[in-house]
């Protein structure tokens, strides 16, 4: 059972602005019934002021999808079109007091529906499919993945699935998603003033690896050993640090949390705030 905030439950149980506006000036439809979530957003615009007078929605989906749609309509009414377009999916989630990470795709769907409705009002042609389809189950492209990763600063494949659904079906695209994500993270790695791709503080690659080794050997591994676990540094590739969990950590159901909440945070604090930790598993 998901843990929903009071705001989410309020907008789910008593959603605002359900239906269709009296005069449809623009509409956007995203998702599909086959994917489990679908949203139709209609807007009525004061054409003299370029202000959204009214907005209503029709949504098929879970509590988060309905709450996100309800919140979106409340947020955009009374705003100019440009002001409305400046809203992000994170703004929708924040309005609701937060969403479970596994349900963030619902806020992304709201943002996309708004963009489609405004484009429709402005007489713009529907966007052609951008990029290559990565996830055939949910029709998600590499361009969509990159946009969501950069906007929300995602660092794991699991987060990409939570925000886009990509990889949440048959799972055949997970390797492609990881490749796209790793490429984005490498391109986003901080550069020194000389532009040579070194980490903050102008660390050389060798010095950076040495700091990572020291942090793992002297601080991280000893802490894990106290609970019967261990960790080994496997490789370093830009901001990506590959490690292998040993001992009790290897089979622990909380290993992902150990990597995210302990190993990653310690390396970011001790070496580089841009570090992303990946678990290396032998093929």
Describe the structure.
The chain has 283 residues and is of the alpha+beta class. It has helices at 6-13, 63-76, 81-85, 89-95, 104-121, 142-152, 157-164, 174-187, 205-225, 248-251, 255-270; strands at residues 26-32, 37-46, 51-60, 133-135, 140-141, 229-237, 240-247, 276-279. It folds into three domains: 6-121, Sufe protein. Chain: A, CATH 3.90.1010.10; 133-187, BFD-like [2Fe-2S]-binding domain (Arc Repressor Mutant, subunit A, Orthogonal Bundle), CATH 1.10.10.1100; 200-279, GMP Synthetase, Chain A, domain 3 (2-Layer Sandwich). α6 crosses α8 and α9 crosses α11 (255-270). It is elongated and about 65 Å long.
How would you describe this structure in keywords?
283 residues, alpha+beta, Sufe protein. Chain: A, Arc Repressor Mutant, subunit A, GMP Synthetase, Chain A, domain 3, 3 domains, three-stranded mixed beta sheet, 11 helices, 45% helix, 19% strand
CATH topology of the largest domain: Sufe protein. Chain: A
Number of domains: 3
Query: What's the CATH class of the largest domain, please?
Result: Alpha Beta
Order of helices and strands: HEEEHHHHEEHHHHEEHHE
Give the fraction of residues assigned to helices. 40-55%
Number of strands: 8
- List unreliable stretches of 5+ residues: 192-200
Strand order of the largest sheet: 1-2-3
Most strands sheet: 3 strands, antiparallel
Helix and strand composition category: alpha+beta
Helix segment tally: 11
Give the amount of beta strand, in percent. 15-25%
- Outline, from the CA principal axes? elongated
The overall average pLDDT, rounded, is 86
- Straight-line N-to-C gap: 34 Å
What is the second-level CATH architecture of the largest domain?
Answer: Alpha-Beta Complex
Rg calculated over all Cα atoms: 22 Å
């Amino acid at each position: 059972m998901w843990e929903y905030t009071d705001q989410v439950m309020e907008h789910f149980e008593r959603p605002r602005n359900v239906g269709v506006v009296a005069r449809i000036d623009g509409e956007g439809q995203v998702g599909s019934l086959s994917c489990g979530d679908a949203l139709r957003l209609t807007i009525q615009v004061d054409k003299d002021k370029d202000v959204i007078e009214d907005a209503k929605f029709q949504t098929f989906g879970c509590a988060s999808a309905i709450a996100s749609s309800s919140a979106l309509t409340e947020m955009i009414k009374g705003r100019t079109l440009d002001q409305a377009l400046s809203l992000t999916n994170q703004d929708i989630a924040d309005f609701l007091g937060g969403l479970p990470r596994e349900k963030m795709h619902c806020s992304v769907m709201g943002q996309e529906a708004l963009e489609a409705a405004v484009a429709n009002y402005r007489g713009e042609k529907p966007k052609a499919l951008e990029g290559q389809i990565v996830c055939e189950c949910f029709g998600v492209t590499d361009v969509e993945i990159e946009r969501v990763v950069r906007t929300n600063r995602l660092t794991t494949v699991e987060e990409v699935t939570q925000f886009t659904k990509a990889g949440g079906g048959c799972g055949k695209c997970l390797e492609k998603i990881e490749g796209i994500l790793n490429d984005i993270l490498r391109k986003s790695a901080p550069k020194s003033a000389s532009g040579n791709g070194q980490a903050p503080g102008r660390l050389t690659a060798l010095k950076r690896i040495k700091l990572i080794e020291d942090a793992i050997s002297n601080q991280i591994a000893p802490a894990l050993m106290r609970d019967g676990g261990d960790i080994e540094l496997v490789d370093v590739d830009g901001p990506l640090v590959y490690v292998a969990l040993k001992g009790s950590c290897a089979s622990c159901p909380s290993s992902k949390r150990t990597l995210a909440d302990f190993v990653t945070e310690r390396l970011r604090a001790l070496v580089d705030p841009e570090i992303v930790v990946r678990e290396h598993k032998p093929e």
